[in-house]
Design brief:
The complex is a heterodimer of chains A (490) and B (89). Chain A is of the alpha/beta class. Chain A has helices at residues 9-17, 23-41, 51-63, 106-113, 156-163, 180-186, 220-230, 274-289, 305-320, 343-354, 357-370, 376-399, 422-427, 433-438, 467-481; strands spanning 44-47, 75-79, 117-122, 169-174, 189-192, 212-217, 260-264, 293-297, 402-406, 442-449, 455-462. Chain A has an 11-stranded mixed beta sheet, with helices on both faces. Chain B has a domain at 1-39: Histone, subunit A. Helices cover 35% and strands 4% of the residues of chain B. Chain B starts with a helix and ends in a 6-residue tail after the last strand. Classes of the chains: A alpha/beta (490), B mainly alpha (89). Chains A and B meet through helix 9, helix 10, helix 11, helix 12 and helix 14 of A and helix 1, helix 2 and helix 3 of B.
């Protein structure tokens, strides 16, 4: 049944409902693929040992004629940032190496309520801090298109799982591009919803004003189905919006009319990588064929987006990660041989041992930018420029309906190429961080292969809460572009 | 950046190698942040969250939570139904 792993979530669900195959067969096919391919790719940290048992429940429902939900029987891989009750959740860190959550994230509960079955937990950069999946305590995850290359990050494992047919859909989190960038590097669809669309309850917090969970899949339609399942107001996250969640999947093929597509002039200044430029040209051709018009827009504060992002994200992280004190859960140092000098020493040793280098670097930076005497110059200043950046987007969306841009400056880079140079790694996020700072919905759609045979996606960004237009345009581009390549060894 | 002071504020033990590395990296990262100073932000409200969020008050009602044993089972050290820590004074 190896062909089952090439089906979309939608096809899997229809096949189970139509009794063409069973949910248990589907789950077994994906588990087999994981056991053959993941030793090399390292995209999963844990597997759900109850997955087959849970698939049987779906099969029983089908046999008795009950409704199984829009994702009924569909395996879903979950980034290890999201708590799964009874299933280890590490955030890619030694700090949470043995953490078994006593509750599940709202996203996980919603997926399960739609019939999806958690197949396992995906590798990621430690606490989602990284753009290459190399900062994980559980080892780097590799790009299935060429294992010398990074899969992107921080949701690298979630992107790889879908790309290498180890799951039809997965969930990642996106704080500064952590869904869209790995989606582009791995040749899959990745969507970051509007801030407030998806509950953050039960998701390990990195930067609370930026974090948003979203889907990976091989088609826009599958991501749309996941979004319909996971979006919506949640009483456990007071930042979730009461905006209605429309049945986006039913309107995907509706005519979009004459849309104006914005091209931010700052994004196209200087020389673009030839492969990235070609991906934009292909995307433009498809939009032209759809009858769209192009307009130049301006996001004047673009050059500040990476500094603003790294000040705000590290500041928020330094506060959020204060909870890891080694008292109630998480890593605790050994105090038997060398007792704690005092309470501060107790905390310092637990945290010094539990966190990896990139996390320590960011906590240090964020603690500094929030500290007395520096708060106004860094944190407050960054928040003010963030406001100006958001206004840039609001102005742009008065003259266009959607923005087209690259996802990253280059296709995937080699493992080890940038890990020792934090600024080079941070600058990688130039096109993706603005979306999070402004709270907008964005996605990465696979378009073509580079000269090195690595996938490249393009980024679409819409106005806040306009997922409907975003998904419609992307779906119709997808039909025209028809990217059908897959990694050769899967 | 006074790395020792910041590490203590952050309750973070750093090795000597980490301190040296971070000190050099922080100065180039902070230099990179300097660009922000050229932006005129006089009178600009600092945006701390991207969407318009209003407080969402709710009734303060206690609900049953059956997971206390599970929560204790993931603690580094417990005594009965209490979290235990080593002597710190």
């Amino acid at each position: 049944m190896s062909d089952l792993i090439n089906l979309t979530a939608k096809e899997i669900n229809s096949g189970i409902v139509g009794k063409k195959f069973k949910a248990t067969e589907v789950m077994q096919a994906f588990l087999d693929q994981i056991s053959t391919k993941d030793k090399c790719l390292n995209s999963f940290i844990s597997l759900n040992d109850k997955a087959i048992e849970q698939a049987k429940i779906i099969d029983d429902k089908v046999a008795s004629g009950s409704d199984i939900g829009i994702l009924g029987g569909v395996p879903v891989a979950i980034k290890d940032m999201l708590c799964t009750k009874g299933l280890k959740t590490t955030a890619g860190s030694k700090m949470l190496e043995n953490f078994i959550p006593p509750y599940s994230a709202t996203v996980v509960n919603k997926l399960e309520a739609s019939g999806a079955i958690v197949i396992g937990k995906c590798n990621q950069d430690e606490f989602a801090m990284g753009s290459s999946n190399e900062t994980s305590y559980f080892g780097a995850c590799k790009n299935p298109w060429d294992t010398d290359y990074v899969p992107g990050g921080s949701s690298g494992g979630s992107a790889v799982a879908v790309s290498a047919r180890m799951a039809p859909i997965s969930i990642g989190t996106d704080t500064g591009g952590s869904i869209r960038q790995p989606a582009s590097f791995c040749g899959v669809v990745g969507v970051k919803p509007t801030y407030g669309r998806v509950s953050r309850y039960g998701i390990v917090a990195f930067a609370s004003s930026l974090d948003q969970a979203g889907p990976f899949s091989r088609t826009i339609e599958d991501s749309t189905l996941v979004l319909e399942s996971i979006c919506g107001q949640d009483k456990y996250d007071s930042t979730t919006s009461d905006a209605s969640v429309e049945p986006w999947s039913t309107g995907l093929s509706d005519k979009v009319g004459v849309l104006k597509v914005g091209l931010p002039k700052e994004y196209f200044e200087g020389t673009l990588d030839v492969d990235v430029k070609r991906s934009i040209d292909i995307a433009k051709d498809s939009l032209k064929e759809m009858g769209c018009e192009f307009v130049e827009v301006s996001i004047p504060h673009t050059k500040y987006s990476v500094p603003i992002y790294y000040i705000i994200a590290t500041s928020e992280a330094s506060s959020n990660l204060a909870r890891y004190d080694g008292v109630r859960f998480g890593h605790r140092a050994n105090f038997d041989d060398k007792p704690a000098a005092d309470l501060i020493d107790f905390y310092c040793r637990n945290r010094g041992e539990g966190f990896g280098t990139e996390v320590k670097r960011r906590i240090t930076l964020g603690t500094f930018t929030l500290s007395s005497g520096y708060y106004d110059a860094y944190y407050k200043k960054a928040c003010q420029v963030r406001n100006l950046l958001k206004q840039d987007f609001e102005k742009s969306f008065k003259s266009c309906d959607i923005i087209l841009s690259p996802v990253t400056t280059t296709p995937a880079f080699k493992i080890g190429a940038r890990i020792s140079d934090p600024i080079a790694m941070y600058k990688n996020d130039i096109f993706t961080t603005s979306t999070n700072l402004a709270g907008l919905p964005g996605l990465s759609l696979p378009v073509t292969l580079s000269k090195d045979k690595l996938p490249i996606g393009v980024q679409l960004t819409a106005a806040a809460f306009n997922e409907s237009k975003l998904l419609q345009v992307a779906h119709q581009m997808e039909q025209l572009i028809s990217f059908k390549e897959k990694p050769s060894n899967v | 950046m006074d790395i020792e002071k910041v590490a203590t504020l952050a309750r973070l033990n750093l090795s000597d190698a980490e301190k040296d590395k971070f000190e050099a990296q922080m100065s180039s990262i902070l230099e990179y942040f300097e660009d922000l100073k050229e932006v005129n932000t006089e009178g600009v409200f600092p945006l701390v969250t991207p969407t318009e969020i209003v407080n969402a008050p709710r009734e303060d009602i206690a609900v049953d939570w059956e997971e206390a044993d599970n929560a204790l089972s993931i603690a580094p050290q417990v005594k009965g139904n209490l979290f235990q820590v080593p002597p710190v004074v």
